[in-house]
Amino acid sequence: MKNSMIKKLISGILILGISVGAAACSEKADAPEEVPSTEGAAAVSNGELKEDSTVIGVGSTKVLYNEYRMYSWFLKNQYEDVMSAQVWDYNLGDKTVGQTAIEDILRLIIQIKVMNKEAAVQGIGLGVDEKEGTDHKADQYLASIPPEVQQQNGITAEGMHQIFEENEVARKMYDVVTGNVEANIDEASMQAAKVLMIHMPADDSNREEVRAQIGALAAEQRTYKGNFYSFAREKTGSAPQEVIIGKMDGRSALVNTALAMEKHTVSNVIEEQDGFYLIFCLKKSTKGLNKVYREQYITGQQNMTFQAAYENWAEKYEVKVSKSLLAN
Fold it and tell me: In this predicted structure, what is the pLDDT of residue 204?
């Protein structure tokens, strides 16, 4: 199992099945809060943890142990039935899956808290109808959890409402930040092709050596009897990457070659700043493929835009985490 697998597990929590979608109209709070340039973190408990122990401080915002337990339960509930409880003991090298999950849950909670604090600063919150709708979803979810499970994991109606509401506010913040990305994209720039790709990285220190290597590989491929996928596995030890290459990609030689290729043909060696490529055209540009590429590109641009904004927000708040929680 790889770390990427664990990332997929954790992302199942975010945000409790409430995926990021179209921007909703944000209602302004009565008066935006004023936040100092760096807000000191609330003190955390480093002793025996109880339900009301503060385990994370994000600026002055306190996260109690019971809230952390609820987030942990969401993860375990989703995946233990599929993968068994033993998955958390699987060793990833220097950490177990369980230890990695703890760290990722902490990052998730911190992100939600930072986004909610910034929402208060910007005067973004839930309107009355939005809050009622979100709480209704929380109540429906709570009703699906057996009472004994709720008791064992500290799951309460109040806690469920808070988590659902804060996740909804976080989603609105994401939408506010990324709302203009799609409008700034030129449809004519969305032409794309789907390819299988062999990439051999190179820089100034080894460029000529790598050039010779991929040149020999390309010559071998021209007389190879099997398919491109088998060739890549056999000659490089790895499967080729299956990617959609489009006009917005900065590797112009790679893009121009991919868009000019016929289906089921192999390119000559393509040189880019980051190395050399051989590609096999799986699918030429079509409306459907261009739409997929557009959605893929928009998502990437939204994530970059959000990440830049989030990094600025996070700098405003000192964060502390309980040593006792990390030691679990």
Answer: 93
